[in-house]
Predict the structure.
Amino acid sequence: MHRTPGWVRPVLGAALAVLGSVLALHSAASIEVFVVLVSAGLVALGVARIAGALGRDGDGEGTWPWLEGGSGALLVVAGIAALLWRGTTLPVLAACVAVLLLVTGATSLAALFRKTPVHRAAALLGGLAAVLAGLLVMFWPRLTLWAFGVVFGGWLVFAGLHMLVGFLARRRGPGGRAGGRWREFGRVAGSAVALLMAVAMVALTAFIHAGDPRLVPDAFYTPPTDVPSEPGRLLRAELLGSGVPANAEAWRILYTTTNPDGSPAVASGSVVVPRDRGEAPLPVVSMAHGTKGIVPRCAPSLSPQPFEDGPAAALRELVSQGWAGVMTDYVGLGTAGPHPYLVGEAEGRNVLDAHRAARRLEGIALRGDAVIWGHSQGGHGALFSAAIARDYAPEIGVLGVAALAPASNLEDLALGVKDDAAGKVVSSYIAASWEELFPALGVGSLLTPGYAGAVERIGELCFGGRDALSAIVGGTQLFDAVLPASALHGPLGAKLRENSVAMDIGYPLFVGQGLADQLVKPGMQRNWVAARCAAGQEMEYREYQGLDHMPLVQDDSPLIRDLVAWANDRLQGREPVDTCP
């Protein structure tokens, strides 16, 4: 077996290029798709190396045929094993690909001893590219499926095109001389591109994992020594200078509120009002923000854009019409934690107490009633705010509550997003926050074995800017759910149900849901809406075709127009719409 049929190399080259392209473009797809693509790539590349070792044609490309053939056999075995041995798929794939790249680099660098300058240049560039990519896969401390898929997919494309160019170049020109020139150019150019890709991947991966500059809450967020126990007391206020809507003024505030266990707490937030406001009390929209993280530096009031969460365009429109906006950061964001992530009653208290505190700002007159709204985690908080308002803050008149893609059923949410990268970030936030808030639950012991370190790392990241990207790609390195389904059956499941929205909202209720939402699934929301309607709840429920979780509240979303009209209807006392059957 000294030759392989002539058609084998171009077929294998085309297969490698196609597989590599699909893998690089779909490396953030589901785990199952990813494993199939990588396994197929390993097998195809292994067969190509075996064919290359058996089909030496005197072109001087191979240095150690036995090493090339042996590594090819290893890749075929690894590709098959990856499909059968799911529990350790990522470590196995990473090790095999790293070995492949390092062996490829070593054999390429060995070709530096050849006589022709073209061979030496191609060997040096290609060898350095392979070694650098291999080291990236092997030693990067937070390897992600995305980075791994792009590195390996790019390498498959390079290997496939190299085989195709070599095959086509042999068939050009008399005596192969023109083909030889094409092959020489292809070697150097392809190797240079591969080296640039490897360097770019190292730089990009470092950029992603670096996250955002680490903000540190300043002295404003440190409560005074003597903190009153009365919730809703304004402790201090300070003008905001950035991210304020046009023709408006804004402050960050520090105020008293209540912890989940009922003990006094301190939270921060922000208030925005129109610059030209007259003396009449302003109508208020009290906002609960979506997931931002669980550590103090993730507070929206610390951000350069403190009012860009959720339906920001709707807020700007209402402020331009003479409304005031009040938004809590929640306890533990800005102020000392722990942050009660998706703990409904705590979120509701934080929202209501922010409104109480904002009414104590000097020189500003706010109405005693309010419209409450929130997106995602904020939708969850808005619903709980309305549910507890009559008992916790009876002096606040709730005109209505709007929940946009709310986390309404936490148990279904945890089950529905357990395999998605963003869902694993949410699960990590729940696990890290609740481990500190509810130590009796023993959430840390319920995590998938080996995931504690990843959960801790994700918990230190905010869900915004580069931090969000770093958190998402961190979630892709977790092959299985952060909290397995079995963990939800005991006390943790009971606590999730306790913090789901299963109470009557005695105010006009608007719920908006994007039908392309990959985080808060439309099916889960429909089931919740049906259950609440059956329980006698009245609500206006609207679905928005083709909108995912974040696009639902972006400036060009049709929801913005609907939300502004709904808020003004509540202010005017118009009869709410009820879409329940």
